[in-house]
Amino acid sequence: MGNNTKKLSLVLAGLILAGSLVACDDGRGGAESAAKQLASAVAGLDLRPVAFDGRDSNVAHDQLNQVFKALAPAKPSVEAGELTLDGDTARFPLNYSWKISTGEWKYTVSADLRKSGDKWLTVWSPGMLVPNLAEGEILSKSTQSPPRADILGAGNQKLVTLRPVVNVGIDKPQLGGADAAASARKLASLVGVDPDAYVQQVEASGAEAFVSAITLRNTSDRAVTDAEIEAIPGGRAIPGELPLAPTRTFARPVLGAVGEASAEQIEKSNGALTAGDVIGTGGLQQQYDAQLRGTDGTVVRVQRADLTREEIQSAPTDPRRTVFEVQAVPGKPLQTSLDTKLQQLAEDTLADVKPASAIVALRPSTGEVLAAASGPGSNGYNTAMLGQYAPGSTFKVVDSLAMIRNGFTPDSTVECTPTLTVDGRKFKNAEGYPKDSLGSVTLRDAFAHSCNTAFIAARDKVTQAQLESAATSLGVAVEAPKLGAEAFLGSVPGEAEGTEHAAAMIGQGRVLMSPLAAAVMAGSVAKGSPVSPVLVQESAPASSSASPAATAEGSAPSSTVTAEAPAKAAQTPVTQAEAASLADMMRAVVTSGHAGFLAEVPGEPVGAKTGTAEFGNANPPKTHAWIIAVHGDLAVAVFVEEGGLGATTSGPLLKKFLTAAG
Predict the structure, then answer these.
(1) Prior bond of 557 cis (ω within 30°)
(2) Is 371 within a domain?
(3) Would residue 376 count as lying in a domain?
(4) Among 499, 520, 607, 635, which one is least packed by beta carbons within 10 Å?
(5) 181 and 48 in one domain?
(6) 156-199 pLDDT, tens digit each
(7) d(CA 301, CA 511)
(8) Residue 378 class from Cβ within 10 Å (0-12 exposed, 13-18 middle, 19+ buried)?
(9) Which domain holds residue 177?
(10) pTM for the full model?
(11) Where would I find the H helices in 528-635?
(12) What pLDDT, on a 0 to 100 scale, did the predictor assign at position 643?
C-alpha cells in the first residue's frame, strides 16, 4: 500500500511539472528551429523542405535559384541571428557571406515567421535573399579584366603591348529580320573562316548575342574594311585592344600568344576562368599568365529579370544597382632581355629557310639572351630553345677542352687520316675535306678544318666522363636557374664505350644540344667562364629546364635519343686560360679553316666552329647544319635541321646576321 502511494505521488508530480513547462513555453524553441532550418536551406540553395505562409515551397525554391543563378557555382554561408518573438510572429536576421572572386560579400537581411497552429511558417519576401530585393529582380555578375601587362625587352622596348584590333562578327540584335545563317555564311567567306562552323555557332547562340568570327589587327592596310563588314546584315566590327607583338610571328614560339579561353580551359580551371577571359597560350604568356593578367574585378548588381542588353546600352544611366564590387588589380609587366632589332633581324635572316631552323644570340658577359628566333619551317615550335639535336662538329669545342685538360695544346700534333675504323664501324671526314690538311697536323688545324678522325683518335685519351665534365664546364647540359623560361640546355652521357664513345667525340651518338645550348657554349669561350643564360629578368614561377613539349606550341621533332637529366652546375668551370686556347682555335676556323667568309664581317675578329651531324636512316644520310661564332660581346648559334654542311648552309646565314647586327 505504501509503495503504491509513493508511485502515484511521483506520477502526479511529473504531470504537474510537465504542465507547468508547457504553460511557460512561449513558442521560442519552435521559431528558432524554423529560423535555423531556413538558414540551412538558403545556404544549400534548396527551399523545398521549408514550409511557407501563403507560397508554395517549390515556387520559392525556383525563385531563389533564379535570383542567385549568376553567382553559380558559389553558394552562400548563412546563419540565423537572435530571434525577436511577438506573439504568433517572429523576426530574425539572416547573416550572409559569399566568396566572390578574391573578395567576401557580407550582408544581413531580416526574415519573418508566422505561427499557424503548432507550426512556424516562413513569410516569403525577396528581401530575405538580398537587401531591398523586389519581386521580379535578380542578381547579375560581370567580370572586368584589367589591361594585360606588357612583355618588355631590352631597354624596356615593348615587345607585347596593347595594340588596336577589331572584333568582327554577327550582332544578332542588329539583324533586323535578316536570316542569321545567311549573314553568318557571307561574313565567314569575307573574313576567311569556316562558313559551316561559324553558321552553326551563330545559330546556337542566343538572340542577344554578338558572335565573334575573327579578331583582326586594326591597321590602315587591313584587308577587310568596316564598309564590307557592315554591308552584311548584322555584320559588325567592334574596335578594341589586345596584347600583341609587333607582328604576328615576332618571337611567337618564345613569347606565346593571347586569346580567349577555350571551353576546355574553362572547364579545367575550377571556376578560375569564365567565357570571354583572355589568357596566355604557350611560351612566356602561358608561363607568366597569372602575373600578366593581374586579378579580374567583379561587380554584382541587382536588375530586373527581363532587362535586355539593348535597354542597358540605351539608358541614360545604368538601370542596375551595384551591391558588391571587387576592384581589378592590374598585372605586372614581364621584363625580358630580348632585343627587338636583333630578334627581328634573326627572323628576317631565316625567312626563306624551308626546314626547321633557328638563330640564338646572347651577350656572354651577362648571359642575356638577345634573340631566340625559330624559322618558318619550325611551324611554331621553339626550335631555338627546346630543340634536341646532335651538334656535330661544334661539339669539338668540348672535345678540345677535355683534351687540353689532358695535356694537349693548340700546337700539339694529332693524326688526321682519311678514315678511321672503330669496332668495325668506319668513320670519315666530311665531303670535300682538304687533302693538304691530312696527316700530322696541329690540334688547331684539325679543329679549323674539322678533322673527324683526329678527334675520334683521341678517344683513348679522353674518357666519356671527361667529355661530360668539359661540356658542363662550358655551360652545356646543366640547369639554367636564371633563364626564367622552358629550355633544353643539352645532354651529354657520362658513360659510353666503343663506337658510341667515338661518335660522341664528333657530336653524334647520344650527345644532344639546342641552338641555345650551342650559343651558351660559344659564349662561355668568349667570357672565359660558364655562361648562365638569362631571358626573363626576374624570378621565374616554374622550372627553366623541361621537356620540349612542356609549354611549346607546334610539334617537337622526333628523336631516337633520350636526353639525360641536366647537372645542377659545372663542377670544374672553364678557366680563362682554357678559354683563351679554345678562342685561338675558333679564330683559326676563320683565318685558315673553311669559315674564311666570316673574315669579311666588320668590327672585332670573329671566332667560329662549324658542325654537320648525320641523322635518320636515309642513304645518303640527312644532316643538321650548325655554326657557332663569337663576335665581341656577342655569341651566336645558327642551326638548320636539314641543311647539308654547316659551313655552306648555316655559314652564309651567320654572316648575314653578324654583318647586319653591327
Answers:
(1) no
(2) no
(3) no
(4) 499
(5) no
(6) 999 999 999 999 999 999 999 999 999 999 999 999 999 999 99
(7) 62
(8) buried
(9) 151-335
(10) 0.81
(11) 576-591
(12) 83
